[in-house]
Write a structure and sequence with these properties.
Blueprint: E1 2-14, E2 18-21, H1 22-26, H2 34-41, E3 45-48, H3 54-68, E4 78-82, H4 93-101, E5 107-110, H5 116-129, E6 136-143, E7 160-181, E8 189-190, E9 198-199, H6 201-222, E10 232-233, H7 240-250, H8 261-264, H9 271-281, E11 289-297, E12 301-309
Helix pairs in contact: 3-4, 6-7
């Protein structure tokens, strides 16, 4: 459903300073290849959090978004935090971050893995329309380095980071978000309590290259749009090959797809807001741009948010 007069009034992101290159990972001796990782995944390096928790990264990104929106923490009346690498099982990472910000508003976590930010946009946009909330802080934060088995070759995929937006009323803007899930991919990407994540890369590729173009096409058609109307596709960053194939199926030029995995790898739920912030900081977002934000995560979860961006 298209929700009118709503938009993003503040954007921020944060990546920890420690860089781990493909060559360094190759040195761990489990058969990875720096050239293959760059060519097939689009990744040269990733950021790793040594000390900071997911809540800390979230706090830094949220502070940037609040500053960009010219708001104080006290102006926020709801916090939604998407993460699949929380600080603890309890309390929620949202509550921990809320304490860092000094807010006393409701705060809760959601976990749709790499689709978490899109799920959060669905929640935030609908809650704004009720009139009960004015400014919602939506944060996605991940520290996958803490659940990565660095002796497993799949360690090359992920990095740490956070992104945040403030969702509020915006005259002339609109959002339309569709979210989905099934149980087919439950074992394709999994992480048990106290263990490291395990992934079937082929299943992720096969499902991603099927569901992403299908969902984007259907969501555009539902909103009376075509790929020609799209200013930017700002996707979750699963791999360069998944995104290249998706763009090819939809006949969207790759230069209209925002890619940031080269230096940040796949930051899971934080991928989209971090990529959005990169575009914003380069002054590449223009008034009335049509933005398409798609994601697919384990479970499977997937979704797409289409935004008419109004500054």
């Amino acid at each position: 459903m298209k929700i009118f007069d709503i938009g993003i009034i503040g954007i921020g992101s944060f990546a920890p300073p420690t860089v781990v290159t493909n060559e360094e990972i190759d040195g761990f001796g489990h058969g990875t290849n720096a050239k293959w990782t760059e060519e097939k995944l689009g990744i040269k390096e990733r950021r790793i959090s040594i000390v900071d928790r997911s809540s800390d990264l979230a706090y830094y990104a949220a502070s940037e978004a609040l500053n960009d929106a010219n708001l104080e923490a006290s102006d926020i009346d709801l916090i939604i935090l998407a993460t699949s690498s929380p600080d603890r099982i309890s309390p929620s990472t949202a509550c921990i971050m809320s304490g860092l910000l000094g807010t006393d508003c409701p705060a809760f976590d959601i976990n749709a893995v790499c689709s978490g930010f899109v799920y959060g946009l669905q929640l935030a946009s609908n809650l704004i329309t009720t009139g009960q909330h004015k400014n919602i802080l939506l944060v996605a934060t991940e520290t996958y380095s803490k659940i990565t088995d660095w002796k497993d070759r799949n360690c090359v995929f992920f990095g740490d980071g956070a992104g945040a937006v403030v969702v509020s009323k915006v005259n002339g803007g609109w959002m339309s978000t569709d979210i989905f899930s099934d149980s087919v991919g439950v074992e394709s990407f999994t992480c048990h309590h106290g263990e490291k994540f395990r992934m079937d890369g082929k299943s992720v590729y096969d499902f991603g290259t099927t569901i992403l173009p299908k969902t984007i096409k259907e969501s555009l058609e539902k909103n009376g749009l075509t790929t020609e109307d799209v200013s930017w596709v700002i996707p979750h960053q699963p791999s360069i090959n998944i995104l290249k194939k998706t763009a090819d199926i939809l006949n969207i030029p790759l230069n209209r797809v925002m890619l940031n995995m080269t230096h940040f790898a796949n930051t899971a739920g934080a991928s989209i807001p971090m990529a959005l912030d990169s575009l914003y900081r380069k002054d590449s977002l223009k008034n009335n741009d049509i933005l398409v934000l798609p994601a697919v995560g384990s479970g499977w979860t997937w979704g797409v948010s289409i935004i008419k961006y109004v500054k």
